[in-house]
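Q: Can someone sanity-check these two? First one:
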Amino acid sequence: MATIRKRGAKWQVQVRRVGHRPLSRSFHILKDAEAWARHIEVQADRGKLPRDPRVLNTITLGELVERYRDSVSVRKRGYDVERIVLTAFLRHALCRKRLSEIGADDFASYRDERLKAIKPSTLKREFAPLRNLFELARDEWGLPLQENPIAKVRLRASQPRRERRLKPGELERICEAAKSCRNRLILPIILTAVSTGMRRSEILRLRWDDLDGTNRSLLIRHPKNNQPRTIPLTKAALATLFGVEATSGRIFPITANAFRLAWDRVKARTGITDLHFHDLRHEAISRFFELGLSVPEVALISGHRDARMLFRYTHPVRMRIIDKLDATPHKS
């Protein structure tokens, strides 16, 4: 609302809007004052006025995190994991600071603290929702944040990508240990991962409606990159899936946490320590190349949108090239 008052020889205009810093200006002519007042009110109606930075003194980082967790994260497929990450972060003293006090140095200190307990790759995943939180607060929630404090925080150089492959006899030991699991889904989940290269999350979301036995294909509706794909199945993979007892709409009605715990018990029984479940995806994709599949064919199955991401799996291809070079007759 604009207020115009006569102060001496000038007309003073003051515009106040909730959440914005009061704006004022003086004019010698009343019509100029009225025109400026109308212009500012139009700008305010369009949301183009600068926000009052004093608003940041009234909101803590924790309140912002809670709002993001309860209104944004809840709509994500990975909500269960992100909720755990954000709820744990809320216990940190940094969340008790007001937004006006938060800077890149605070998150740099937090980074150094966390890196004593976790890997840079894990911290990068923890920072992802926080970085998005500040962008959303500035662009959609109208908070007068001058910058994203996390954007300027550098993480240490990422560790080399894992290229762990199964050693001779390891798959057999894992399968034997999985047979003794009380939950009969563990073994077929492991076999499905090795035969298809699917991620754990993709496997656990599979539904019987996604399985086409006639065409030996499987529809992956909710992949990591949000691009559904249909993959071919070997006879062994098809037999594994149809060997699972149908008790619900999902092929594998088990939670991610329950499977993680079961996987850890399987590894403990075998004595294998340096093996992640995701390594089975690496194993499967490497086997695809060893079978002679081309990069586009492997990408169709694995879901990689950028073929360059498959270069880390090309060791089998390099070995075939060497064999071809060795077999090439050389002219004297």
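And here is the second, same format, sequence then tokens:
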Amino acid sequence: MRIIFFTQDDPFYIKIFFDEFLKNYKSPDEIKAIVISRSMGQKSTYKLAKQMFDFYGPVNFLRVGIRFAYLKLMSKKQINKSDPGKIPKTYSIKQTVGAYGVEVIERSDLNSKSFISFIQKYKADLFISVASPIIFKEALIHIPKRDCINIHNAPLPRYRGMLPNFWQMYHGEKQVGITVHRIETGIDTGDIISQHHVPIDPDETLDHLIRKTKKENAKLIIKAIDDFRNNRIQYIKMKGEGSYFSFPSHKDVREFKQRGKKLL
């Protein structure tokens, strides 16, 4: 299998996925590259910071900001490839995958002709999106020989869109869904490969739930790859219109807290 991952530059949560995945995946040499796009796509640093300020509020924004600055500083450290059984401490996705000798590609123009031409040279069997901020178009989707798949923390077709863990907590769900599915040109559409549920514990914060589901995501992607390898994949049509949610507004966050929920 020749596999390429697509993700975004997030040191907080997505890194947890790759830490867990690479620690447990038996054939890291199959991962030919990881494409890291700008966090939240093409959003400017100012707009991204404002969005995070509105989401977290001044106190939590300061706490998260200090941690972010620390991780960015530490991410500049040189991390050598791991010896078997010796995993160095890392502070970014780039450092984590680099420690396993996996190539890192930093690009956000995933649907451009130049990127399509570039990525075709890898002759991938499988593309896997883990919170990639870019909506894939047909030319990109049809490159891999086997399939192009995504993992989304929701019981699709319900809770399509952004920050699904937040919205499931917001609506009082007792468990959060996780769906592995084939990528189509729509947002979180495509035939379902597998669907699982993880309980939301009483008094669980959004931060803890995201961390918990990212670790579960890694296990489910490992299983999906194994199923592709052994021709055990069975697709289920995604039925119903479902629901879609955008990034929470300041008003949404205020209501979230009034319902007794916590971000951190």
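A (reply): Looked at the second one. The mean pLDDT is 94. The longest strand covers residues 175-182.
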